[in-house]
Amino acid sequence: MGEKIEPSNGVFNQVFSVCTINLIHFAHGATLGWLSPFLPLLQSDDSPLDTGPVTVEQASWIGSILCLGALVGAIIYGSLTSRLGVKRCISCIIFPNMSFWMIVYFGTSVYHLYIARFLAGVTGGGVIVTFPLFIADISDSRIRGMLGSCWALSRNLGILVMYIIGDILSYRTVPTVMMVVPLLFGILMYSIPETPQSLLKKRKIIEAEKSLQFFRGVTSKTRNTEYKFQHNFEELQNFILTSKTEHTKLQLSDFVSPQARKGLFIGIFLLFLNQFCGVFAILTYAVSIFQESGSNMSPGASAIIIAAIQIVGTVASFIFIDLTGRKVLLLISTFGTGLGVSCLGTFSWLKERQFDLSGYGWIPIVSLSVMVFLFCVGLCNIPFFIIPEILPTKICNVGNTISMILTTVFAFVVLKILPILLKEIKLYGATALFACTCFVGVIVIAAIVPETKGKNLVTTVDI
């Protein structure tokens, strides 16, 4: 006989687990936001580095080398998930994150910051590879979208907190405060089991059953009832073992079938759009962007407002994603992001041409607020966890790793060239490129991206 499934217990355990792993993503978000409040200091005569003020070229490397680290992290953690298990890989993310904060605290050279940001990127690479797999493995299809939105929420909270404490705390104090977060993450991870799928792949049947009981809310007090837990577990077991057998026979033909090619194209394009819409790059250099835009608000305060808007947008995504579906939010998000970045660029162009904009200094902050809010509603997080929903089961893990590796390449290119673009073609030129990418993205999403709301991951969506 089966065991009774207590939905409330299962939901609590799933939410608790996702919130716990997102502590390290919160800490990673803080590393992403760290550059914005401290770059002006690093470039000033009061730079805390013994190597002196950071140049524009060095600043572009500090910003972009994070993505090279993410590339390495995605490769390392992607290869380890099948060996160690998804949960264990996530636990290991604590090491590069802690290393970032320690190097920032003790570092005295710009080269130390290169190493620190590279390690921060390794953290991000681990997150983007392992989190979608963990959430797909443990979550009920009814709340998978909301749980997937949590990782964007935690990252954006980290960015907001860093903007705030970076504005009020000293350069050396911030790392000592932030090291508390990964330590708490390491402690709480002990209470979460490995995912049942990872355990089944290692033929650990008993541990896998206990893990599924935890994530489905099955308790010993409700045994011998008719809720068919054993049937569900056996179905999962058969599916995983069959999939493992198939994965040992992966061939090039598996990646060139019509469904695989279309799934890979959609996933890679959405991740390209996620980066080349420009929001991540703009947030990385937020303070400098506001200085360039001509806003009459202080750059630090403007950056904090934008980070707070991120939170609001992510919460909106959290609420609507399992109600309206992925595709609708992607369309609204992409179009709105393009519109917001266009307004920012137009204001910058008018300012450059000496138009009288007295009384309109609020336009940059409003434009960025709209852009960031709508970006967070969909384009920020949906591309990452939609990939396991659209790829054929046989190539899902490999396709997910390939896609995540490519997104680190996209991010590196954008972060590396943005400071150069700001110098060569000004803010309005850079935003024109980002806006064009968004509007092309709207057309592509409308034409080929399927709706995956409520999809059972044991099957494949028709694309």
| Lateral arrangement of strands in the main beta sheet | 1-2
Helix content: over 70%
In angstroms, what is the radius of gyration? Answer: 22 Å
Q: Give the number of DSSP strands.
A: 2
Shape assignment: globular
Structural class: mainly alpha
Could you spell the SSE succession in H and E letters?
EHHHHHHHHHHEHHHHHHHHHHH
Contiguous runs where pLDDT drops below 50 for at least 5 residues: 1-6, 459-463
Mind summarizing the main beta sheet? 2 strands, antiparallel
N/C terminus separation: 38 Å
Total helices: the number is 21
What is the residue-mean pLDDT, rounded to a whole number? 83
Helices and strands in order:
Blueprint: E1 2-5, H1 7-42, H2 56-84, H3 86-92, H4 94-106, H5 110-138, H6 144-168, H7 173-178, H8 180-188, H9 196-201, H10 205-216, E2 218-225, H11 229-247, H12 252-255, H13 258-276, H14 279-284, H15 286-293, H16 299-324, H17 326-352, H18 363-379, H19 382-390, H20 396-424, H21 426-448
Antiparallel strand pairs: 1-2
Helix pairs in contact: 1-4, 1-5, 1-6, 1-8, 1-10, 2-3, 2-5, 2-20, 3-5, 4-5, 5-6, 5-20, 6-16, 13-19, 13-20, 13-21, 15-16, 16-17, 16-18, 17-18, 17-21, 20-21
List descriptors.
mainly alpha, single chain, 21 helices, disordered C terminus, 463 residues, two-stranded antiparallel ribbon, disordered N terminus, 3% strand, globular
